[in-house]
Design brief:
- It contains 14 helices and 15 strands.
- With about 400 residues, it is of the alpha/beta class.
- It has two domains: about 140 residues, Aspartate Aminotransferase, domain 1, CATH 3.90.1150.10; about 240 residues, Type I PLP-dependent aspartate aminotransferase-like (Major domain) (Aspartate Aminotransferase, domain 2).
- The strands form three sheets. The protein has a seven-stranded mixed sheet with strand order 4-10-9-8-7-5-6, with helices on both faces. A four-stranded mixed sheet has the order 1-2-3-13. A four-stranded antiparallel sheet has the order 11-12-15-14, covered by helices on one side.
- Helix 9 links the parallel strand 7 and strand 8.
Length: about 400
């Protein structure tokens, strides 16, 4: 018999998600509970969002404290929390300026607009094309799905936005052949998340940077999934010795609250002038107060260092699984952004994990993805690995 909440949801909520027959009611740390009282270890974390786990006390206090002071005045006025958050991001990244919005798709939308505006404002209107990667995922708005290198995301929405070219990830020659004086930017995820957890080959991102510099094109890193500590550094680009001109963030920045950010170097960001772009709810006081506390916790409690250590432990445990089970084709990822590729469909494994009290998800049909809170413990990882061992 279906849960009453599920029956009501099917009546009143658009049918855009395929969900398991459970209703999550509460969460704490790395664990959530459904309305029947069953608990689950969460290795999805709201799709790489709840990096500090659920209902982190410091984030809750920061949000409630600000809620007693000021909710919203729009971006027609300055607010203290927004300025402090932007200052923290600038001080801890390559960037000079920040634009706040509400989601990753909106952050990528802003990046696409800024890249085009930069060349348009420099009387180079012919430079509007953006090179993106096959298997990439950049969002669900018309511009960001147009920039996404997966046909299943675009199906039914033709005609998509003009001006995007697609090449294979990790293929330097393909980029060298495609980039020219019509290219305004190269857009890529340093690690492809939704595309199957593909990491860059050694030296690849440096070659991308070199080719962009030679062609006079901008380099845009989509760090919506990789950013805010997920890979074992605050931003994934820091692993590779390469700085972009523009970077987008969202997901873990708010630990579950809706926020996106586009960061850029000064000479690029200056293309946005009064009226160029806007967001009514972008960077409201409550959201930016919470996001600033997220970043303080990551730093003060050394969460990113913990992610690096347990991420390597998790990888070794997955490699052990691979040595034991021939159904595992590959282990991929970095930090606590990991996955196993199977030679069979992954959905039955996801469902069996759910029955046994573990939340994991499947991407690209056969890749089981693990993106838990960054505070996950070795003991909790061992519990999942034992479960997977038994299932496989």
């Amino acid at each position: 018999m279906k849960n009453d909440i599920i029956e009501k949801a099917e009546q009143v909520i658009a049918n855009t998600y395929k969900r398991p027959p459970i209703v999550i009611e509460k969460g704490m740390g790395c664990r959530v509970w459904d309305t029947k009282g069953k608990s689950y270890l969460d290795f999805v974390a709201g799709v790489a969002v709840c990096s500090l786990g659920h209902t982190h006390p410091r984030v809750v206090k920061a949000m409630c404290r600000q809620a007693d002071i000021l909710f919203h005045v729009s971006n027609l006025y300055y607010t203290v929390p927004q300025v402090k958050l932007a200052e923290w991001l600038v001080e801890n990244s390559f960037a000079d300026k920040v634009f706040f919005c509400n989601s990753g798709a909106e952050a990528n939308e802003a990046a696409i607009k800024l890249a085009r505006k930069y060349f348009n404002g420099n009387s180079k209107e012919e430079r509007f094309r953006i090179i993106s990667m096959e298997r990439s995922f950049h969002g669900r708005t018309m511009a960001t799905l147009s920039a996404t290198g997966q046909n299943k995301v675009k199906k039914g929405y033709d005609p998509v936005l003009e001006g995007f070219d697609f090449i294979p990830f990790n293929d330097v020659k393909a980029l060298a052949d495609k980039i020219d004086n019509s290219t305004c930017a190269v857009l890529l995820e340093p690690i492809q998340g939704e595309g199957g957890l593909w990491c860059p080959d050694p030296g690849y991102l440096k070659e991308v940077r070199r080719l962009c510099d030679e062609a006079g094109a901008l380099l845009v890193f989509d760090e919506i999934q990789t950013g805010i500590g997920r890979t074992g550094k605050l931003f994934a680009y820091q692993h590779f010795g390469v700085e972009p001109d523009i970077m987008t963030l969202a997901k873990a920045l708010g630990n579950g609250l809706p926020i996106g950010a586009m960061l850029a170097k000064e000479h690029v960001a200056s293309a946005f002038v009064h009226g160029s772009h806007a967001s009514t709810f972008g960077g409201t006081p409550i959201i930016t107060s919470a996001a600033l506390e997220v970043l303080k916790v990551l730093s003060e409690e050394k969460v990113v260092d913990h992610c690096e250590r347990v991420g390597e432990y998790f990888r070794q445990r997955l490699m052990w699984l691979k040595s034991k089970h021939s159904s595992i084709v590959d282990v991929r990822g970095m930090g606590l952004m990991l996955g196993i590729e199977l030679d069979v469909e992954g959905e039955p494994v996801v469902n069996e994990c759910l029955d046994r009290g573990f939340l994991v998800n499947c991407i690209q049909g056969k890749v089981i993805r693990f993106i838990p809170p960054l505070i996950i413990s070795k003991q909790e990882i061992d519990a999942l690995v034992s479960c997977l061992d038994d299932i496989l």
